Amino acid sequence: VKKLLRYLQHTKSIGLLLEPTHTDHAELCCYADSDWTSDKKSRKSTSGYIMFLNGCPVYWQVRKQNFISCSSTEAEYACVSDACNSLTWFDSLITDIWMNPIPPITIME
Q: What is the value of pTM for the model shown?
């Protein structure tokens, strides 16, 4: 606890500045990745993704997959599938807010 308080005391002037790209429309980008059978007991893969709106992170998720993948390719496809499900919802939310459709979404794997 003392180390944490000392750390907070010495770093209170340090900040993180996220500057969005200024455009007239929303730009959505997603990075997704997974590993294969990282949990040695259950042999389940861990997958994660992060979404950026105009260059700023707005949503991310990391979790174990619900099934045991037979290959690294299957684990990657499951990860991208989860990311696409979240992107679909997020796309409709942003479209409702901006009142115009988002250009095609980039997914990096």
A: 0.76
